[in-house]
């Protein structure tokens, strides 16, 4: 599983569905692939990745986001899962740990179901089952509390690519898939998340057979610089631990209540 050759490169990968996606690989060791939130580029992990230490970190811009080309039509969640597989093939990784935030967490669920042999451990951050999830206050709150404060930082520009991401998940649900996810799974949610309420994470943890949940005193954005470090430490303990059950789920060290 481990790639022992140090690497640091950014390049394009052609996927089976005809997409060109921008990929970044850094480090060496046990590989972890990071799946971004809605409309967010791979740079959104910048406060998270330093904690991961000596690992091969694979990240990419989803089709239509950042430096990746925009598809003419929306891709399905299965097609987005295929993009993950194609990226791992391109960098020579057969099996990896998978960490998905928000929309990326939905793709991570689909990938863990569709390609179980390729997922060693799974971490789902601030995400839901898609259709059938408990909704938060909705688009108006999203716009007023996030987009208008600092749209560049949050990466929520109104692009066709972002609309395609929304379309992909609109009629998708992981509920029929969750019981078949075999990878040890860590579910992390913010206690004060008003975009994807914690009820959704509890549902995921209850239905995925080998899952644990960690509720942190934060809002939706677990990639924020003031939250990312301790959350990443939790994820790292899980990835490096002997079994999922060994993860401490009630350790709030380093975190303070925040949005």
Structure characterization notes:
The protein is of the alpha/beta class and 259 residues long. It has one domain: Alpha/Beta hydrolase fold, catalytic domain (Rossmann fold, 3-Layer(aba) Sandwich). The chain is 31% helix and 22% strand. The chain contains eight helices and eight strands. It has an eight-stranded mixed sheet, with helices on both faces. Strand 7, helix 7 and strand 8 form a beta-alpha-beta unit.
Sheet bearing the most strands, described? 8 strands, mixed
Give the uncertain stretches in residue-range form. 139-158, 244-259
Per DSSP, the total helix count is: 8
Q: Write the H/E string, N to C.
A: EEEEHEHEHHHHEHEH
Number of strands: 8
Report the C-alpha radius of gyration, rounded. 17 Å
Strand content: 15-25%
CATH fold-level assignment = Rossmann fold
Q: State the helical fraction.
A: 25-40%
The average pLDDT score comes to 86
Q: For the largest beta sheet, what order do the strands appear in spatially?
A: 1-2-4-3-5-6-7-8
List the helices and strands and how they pair.
Blueprint: E1 3-14, E2 20-29, E3 31-35, E4 56-60, H1 77-90, E5 96-101, H2 103-114, E6 119-125, H3 139-147, H4 151-154, H5 160-170, H6 175-178, E7 185-190, H7 198-207, E8 211-216, H8 225-240
Parallel strand pairs: 3-4, 3-5, 5-6, 6-7, 7-8
Antiparallel strand pairs: 1-2, 2-4
Helix pairs in contact: 1-2
């Amino acid at each position: 599983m481990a790639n022992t050759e140090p690497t640091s490169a950014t390049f394009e990968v052609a996927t089976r569905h005809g997409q060109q996606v921008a990929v970044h690989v850094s480090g060496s060791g046990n590989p972890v692939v990071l799946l971004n939130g809605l409309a967010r580029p791979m740079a959104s992990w910048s406060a998270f990745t330093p904690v991961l230490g000596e690992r091969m970190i694979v990240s990419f811009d989803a089709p239509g986001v950042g430096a990746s080309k925009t598809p003419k039509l929306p891709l399905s969640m299965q097609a987005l899962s295929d993009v993950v597989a194609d990226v791992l093939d391109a960098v020579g990784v057969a099996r990896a740990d998978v960490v998905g935030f928000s929309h990326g967490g939905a793709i991570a669920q689909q990938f863990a179901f569709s390609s179980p042999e390729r997922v060693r451990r799974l971490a789902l951050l601030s995400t839901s089952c898609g259709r059938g999830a408990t909704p938060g206050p909705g688009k108006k709150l999203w716009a007023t509390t996030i987009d208008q404060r600092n749209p560049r930082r949050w990466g929520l520009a109104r692009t066709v690519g972002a609309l395609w991401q929304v379309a992909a998940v609109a009629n998708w649900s992981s509920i029929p898939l969750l019981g078949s996810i075999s990878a040890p799974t860590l579910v992390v949610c913010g206690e004060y998340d008003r975009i994807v309420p914690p009820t959704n994470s509890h549902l995921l943890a209850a239905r995925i057979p080998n899952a644990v949940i960690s509720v942190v005193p934060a809002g939706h954005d677990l990639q924020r610089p003031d939250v990312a470090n301790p959350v990443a430490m939790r994820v790292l303990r899980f990835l490096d631990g002997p079994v999922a059950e060994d993860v401490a789920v009630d350790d709030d060290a380093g975190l303070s209540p925040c949005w």
